[in-house]
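Its record is quoted verbatim for completeness.
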Amino acid sequence: MAPSIDASLVQPVDFRPKPDKVVHLEETPVIDFSILHSPQSGNLESVISQMRKSLQEWDFFVIENHGLAPELFDNVRNAMAKFSSLPYEEKKKASRDLKNPWGYNDKDHTKNTRDWAEVLDYVVNEGFQIPANMEPDCKETVALKNLWPPNPEEFQ
């Protein structure tokens, strides 16, 4: 029996990549955060401007001289690999919901087609405050908290 693919995972032809239209990135946008440690005025505005331009043109950028230890990235990468290898039922224990966007999700959509991706969204500063509803005059806020998976323990 030939393998089958869930139709919800197949992009319509109009949205599929067109090899003749692919733009090749000559150089990845790199933003140097070391200037943020300088007392010179205008540095923050310069970094924000570079970030805005990179996001508008490329949707991403690389940060250098951010001051974070390489071990931190290794630890997060290792914990994420362990989490990704868990059975689906275990990952679902950390599923995000309508009240909290942080947590596990495997049902994101792009252009009305389900993505072939799993994500575990979280924030560095827990307790992030957002408006309680989408009304323009909303004064009430709610605090969003990370929904950590029970495993692996080092991810909490």
Summary: The longest strand covers residues 128-131. DSSP finds three helices and eight strands in the chain. The longest helix spans residues 43-58. The two ends are 42 Å apart (CA to CA).
